[in-house]
Design goal:
Elements: E1 3-11, E2 16-26, E3 31-48, E4 53-71, E5 74-89, E6 93-96, E7 112-113, E8 120-137, E9 140-158, E10 167-175, E11 182-192, E12 196-219, E13 224-248, E14 253-278, E15 293-295, E16 308-328, E17 333-344, E18 347-348, E19 362-363, E20 366-379, E21 384-401, E22 404-407, E23 414-417, E24 422-440, E25 445-460, E26 462-464, E27 483-485, E28 497-511, E29 514-525, E30 543-553, E31 557-564, E32 572-577, E33 583-588, E34 593-601
Parallel strand pairs: 3-7
Antiparallel strand pairs: 1-2, 1-34, 2-3, 3-4, 4-5, 5-8, 6-33, 8-9, 9-10, 9-11, 10-12, 11-12, 12-13, 13-14, 14-15, 14-16, 16-17, 17-20, 18-19, 20-21, 21-24, 22-23, 24-25, 25-28, 26-27, 28-29, 29-30, 30-31, 31-34, 32-33
Length: about 600
């Protein structure tokens, strides 16, 4: 039949709105259509003090899905989604480390950005098409999926994120379109001997991207500006064949076995060219003064050619899989144990050490062997439910983004690398425990609690780092970046402890045949450490956030008042060093916001 919904939200401070909705149509006895739309525009609460404006983000989008089901044994669903970013001027919040050399004295709670040039998305459009086919042939279930992605992003950013006119970056990326970015999967499933559920299949994906980068680097020491350009095409292909099987060994004991062969290919290149404008100056806002002279093709390429082209090829294959035992101890308790082998392929990784060195253009694949023991169950005749698990993982060639000091052969500076490139560290271990508990205390009162403790440490190898005890890095053939012994060091920027508490109380049929409810959500994130940050510059303190919701609801409509981050906590999610010793760049929790949301279903 015909039905749909519409939802609208308005937020007072920071201001913003969100409107979305969808309609379902029955076109014929075998054909149905759903269309949906979204419009979102909001401020984030970040104040750009240099440019006297507020940060804004917004997007519009639409989606259509068509379902054709001519028989009970066959269905086809096609989908198309379009989204577009709008009014998106983004800035990074900073904090002052040394007020004696900083032009601004700010901390995380101030939500201040000090970039002198705009950081904005000039254009971002995404097109996504999907096709699902499901066909039952006798006792076989055949399913096919195909997906297609086309996205275009054009942006400009103040790369140094300070009030000093040092570096501006211009980015233009195409992913898809005539570059053929798509994926397909064919899967056949069935049952044998009433004890064996099986499936086999194949997968293929191809992703091509083209990125054009331009950057202006102010070189006051040399009396001019470098204008560098980068042409970065990347072509990736993935093949896989797989099987997944569930064996009912007894009525209470199941064995799950999965196996997958994966092959990854990637061809990457980076063509670099650059001019030096002698006598020019990069001004606040991004303008450049006229040069006295222009020196072309000044980029120091390790290969005697200009422009300089660096290439890299990744050709990897790996077998992954899982073995899992599930045992129903009784009707209320289920125990399980699993062993898994996982893999992440390597990828292109340009400018890892600040010197554009060709031997560091990619990082390798990562393997992990993981083990888990867990229990799931019900209590009090189903009024409560719990899960708990302990886990352990061992990584080889662990992939991790790091910040460290490096010598830049272009500028001649020793600088802190702030784009957090990925590197491989020989070995790492993860161990931890997680649990959650949900209970309907009464027919009107629900409580939920969850926590995770996860410790990830390096167990072997070296890692690039910022180590003040080492000698300064220098030009080749000396070391171009500092390294630290990784054994025993922290291997993730994520907190060890996370937790959540949620509760909701409902009063039935209070007014207009609607229930009135009050709910609250408390979330906690523990202390964090920066990977490779021996000096502790990137350490983060634990914090918690409380959200409160209240309103009326029934099967047709709902109205809600919310207060997010009710106590206006200024927690820091992530820190990145800026090249200057004066500031750190931050990702912070959104400030306290108050808003209303209304929903209508028909």
């Amino acid at each position: 039949g015909f039905n749909g919904n519409v939802q609208a939200s308005y937020q007072a401070d920071p201001q913003g709105y969100n409107v979305q909705g969808g309609l379902n149509f029955t076109l014929t006895d075998t054909l149905a259509l759903r269309v949906a739309g979204l419009s979102d525009d909001r401020e984030t609460g970040v104040d750009v003090v240099v440019r006297d404006k507020d940060e804004e983000r917004g997007r519009d989008g639409g989606r259509a899905k068509l379902l054709w089901q001519p028989t009970e044994n066959f269905s086809a669903k096609a989908g198309f989604t379009y989204t577009e970013s709008k009014n998106s001027d983004t800035y990074r919040v900073v904090e002052t480390l040394d007020s004696s050399i900083a032009n601004y004295d700010v901390d995380a709670g101030d939500l201040k950005a000090i970039a002198d040039a705009p950081s904005k998305i000039q254009k971002k459009e995404d097109y996504l098409g999907t096709l699902h086919l499901d066909w039952m042939v006798n006792d076989l279930d055949i399913s096919f999926f195909a997906g297609y992605l086309d996205t275009h992003t054009k942006s400009e950013t103040d790369q140094d994120n300070t009030d000093l006119p040092e570096t501006n970056l211009f980015l233009d990326t195409d992913f898809g379109d005539d570059l053929k970015s798509y994926q397909t999967e064919l899967r056949v499933s069935g049952n044998a001997f009433d004890r064996w559920d099986w499936s086999v299949g194949g997968y293929y994906s191809e992703a091509k991207s083209q990125t054009d980068v331009g950057t202006d680097v102010n070189r006051q020491a040399d009396g001019g500006v470098f204008l560098l350009t980068f042409d970065i095409p990347i072509d990736s292909k993935t093949w896989a064949v797989f099987t997944h099987n569930t064996f009912d060994l007894t009525d209470d004991l199941n064995l799950i076995v999965g196996l997958r062969y994966n092959k990854f290919d990637q061809d990457s290149s980076n063509t670099i060219a650059g001019d030096f404008w002698l006598g020019s100056e990069l001004l606040p806002g991004g303008d450049i003064t006229d040069p006295a002279a222009v020196f072309q093709d000044v980029f120091p390429c390790p290969i005697p050619a200009s422009p300089c082209t660096l290439t890299d090829t990744i050709d990897e294959d790996e077998v992954t899989g899982t073995v899992k035992l599930q045992y129903d101890l009784n009707e209320s308790v289920n125990l399980y144990a699993s062993i898994d082998r996982g893999y992440r392929p390597g990828a292109a990784n340009f400018d890892i050490d600040g010197s554009f060195s060709p031997e560091f253009n990619s990082y390798a694949g990562e393997t992990v062997d993981s083990f888990e023991l867990g229990v799931k169950g019900d209590l009090m005749d189903g009024r409560a439910r719990y899960t708990a698990a302990v886990f352990y993982g061992r990584y080889d060639d662990y992939q991790v983004p790091v910040n460290f000091e490096a010598y830049n052969t272009v500028t001649g500076d020793v600088q802190v690398i702030t784009n957090a490139p990925f590197v491989n560290v020989d070995e790492a271990e993860q161990k931890g425990v997680e649990a959650d508990f949900r209970m309907l205390v009464t027919d009107a009162w629900m409580v939920y609690a969850a926590f995770t403790y996860a410790e990830v440490e390096f167990t072997d190898g070296t890692v690039p780092c910022t180590d003040p005890s080492q000698a300064p890095v220098g030009p080749p053939p000396a070391n171009r970046y500092n390294t630290c012994d990784a054994n025993g060091e922290n291997a993730t920027a994520m907190p060890k402890w996370t937790g959540m508490l949620q509760t909701e109380y409902t009063w039935d049929q209070v007014v207009m045949d609607s229930d009135y409810y009050v709910s609250a959500l408390w979330s906690y994130k523990g202390d964090t450490e920066g990977v490779g940050d021996v000096a502790g510059r990137l350490d983060g303190d634990a914090f918690s956030v409380v959200d409160v919701f209240t309103g009326l609801r029934n099967d047709v409509w709902s109205a809600q008042l919310y207060v997010k981050n009710a106590f206006d906590d200024d927690g820091v999610l992530n820190r990145r060093p800026l090249n200057t010793l004066a500031y750190n760049e931050l990702t912070v929790t959104p400030p306290r916001s108050v808003g209303i949301t209304g929903t209508y279903r028909f």
